[in-house]
Amino acid sequence: MKITGNALIALTSLTLCLICQDLSGQSVEARISTREAWVGMPVILQLSVTNASRYREPDMPDIDGCEVRMVGSPSQSSQITIANGRRSESRSVTLQYAITPRRAGTFEIPAITVQVDGENRSTRPMQFVATQSETGDLLFVEITGGQDRVFVGQPLDLTLKIWIKPFRDREHNLTLSEATMWQLISEQTSWGSFAEQLRELAENNQRPGGEEVLRDDASGTARAYYLYEIDATVYPRRPGKIDADDVQIIVNYPTALGKARDPFAEIFRDSPLAGNSALSQMMDDDFFSSPFSNRLAVTSARPVVASATVDATEVVPVPTAGRPADYRGAVGRYRIMTQATPTEVSAGDPITLNIGIAGTGPMDLVQAPPLSGLPSLTGDFKVADQSLAGFVQGDAKVFSTTIRPRSAGVAQIPPIPFSFFDPDTEKFETVTSEPISITVTESDSLSLDSIVGTARPDRTTDNESKTIASGPQPDFTNSDSAALLVSQTAPATARWWWIFVVAPPLVWVLALLARGWNAFGNRMSGFRSPAQQCLTSIARAKKTSAIIAAMIRYISRRTRQECHSASSAIGALRSSGLYEVAAGVETFFQNMDRQGFAGGKDSLLHDQSTARGWVGQIESAIASMKKSMVRRSRSARPVRSTVSRASVFL
To answer: Is 0.70 topped by the overall pTM?
Structure first.
């Protein structure tokens, strides 16, 4: 069959269109950095989404035996292709995830589903294998505690002990120092309950100090090791044996040292310093050497992984016999204080009740007393039937709520009880706050006369009354007389024409002043802290959506991340390390969403009070992260805040 020129051109154009259409089609691809990995070393999974106008980050599946976490933020790229005068553009977004195997074996990354432009697209499953690097006698890890038996929630002091065998390079007759060996601990190490202590040390430019000790190796022979000790207090949350499944120490143990590259070597290659000249030999001496030429670096290493062995400490549950009805899981010793404002109100008016609880247990786990279940309180006060979200302030946790006296004559806010379990006496105890004296009067109500009446005889003098009575009175009688349409001349004594001359400039000046005042107010509001601005917005809120919007703006400013929704604000808190606060705020947002507009005024006041409490808790959490007070032990030594894991120079 003979193909004409026009048909050939049409076929070519159609082919190019199909190619361009294929280039611009949406796609999702997944690839991994390696298929053979070491235990404890991450495999990087890259997920690329191409030509999507919108996409939703996938929910990463769990992989048994592996830890999966997102690395960094999504990166974007674009590519422009021109073929035979036709231009096509391809855009892609790449997400990166670190998959860290915690044991040896073969692992499968299941198909990952990504929603692209409203459609679900899935990747192919992939496999990789992880091999255990033999630890031998190079690394030992133990966790020791001083108690054989504790209750759930009881504080338990633990010590993490890490023994690392010093690396000795026979060729250079060099032994790495304890500071250098500490720097070789991998960033992929899982510290478990000791992570907070490590973070506090790093914020204060400290590290656990190591000392050289003797310890039996795997064969029972005493060898020299560097011992590092880290103390932490944990609060067991379930009965059983103390485990350390979340503690895994990984050391990039050196296998060879080499000279660091001298950046000045190329400069002096053809100079008298090169070769075997006397000057060259002198420069080869340690004293005359370049600052870089004789420095050594770790040129190769292998990961050495060790899991911790733990002392046999048994965790027993809190007994149920004799447990008070208001018990909410507190273990330790506590005291409770209350404060109320205002103390002089009318029946039905709100009273802000602040409850402070201090004690020896984990304050972030302490729950508020069940106020709605206290007959002594609900008999005289209207109390919201909701759990309170508190915030930790120093060594206490503070809760805030709103109560309303039901009638006049209520003389006090009764004592508020708080029950806890004392692990020393192994008994339940209940402490109470002091009662608060208040004055409740009858609620004020406006009479119908005061709403519609216009005359106020009690505030008018006799002369004023006579003047009003003798003067012309307004006539509100409707009239259809034609006389109303007849133009009338104003009296000669009326000199009101000047209003048209003075009023326009006066209005213009007032408008300028108002505009300047608003601008000044806006500038002054910028000097207020994010917390103050948020609290002001919360106080002015007329509905729950306004409270949520105020907190989203506040979280965005405090975390310095763009937040356009409640979920993005929760994500910003989590990415800032405020995990427990994020969980509480998320629950608070969900409760307000479910409540909607059906809560009424009382519920709005309670939400405002709770929101103020969360703002205080966020401020407290951020302040504690920035200004953590760390007990400086004798083993703590200064260390640079930034440590390079890639190479260690000596």
So the answer is: no
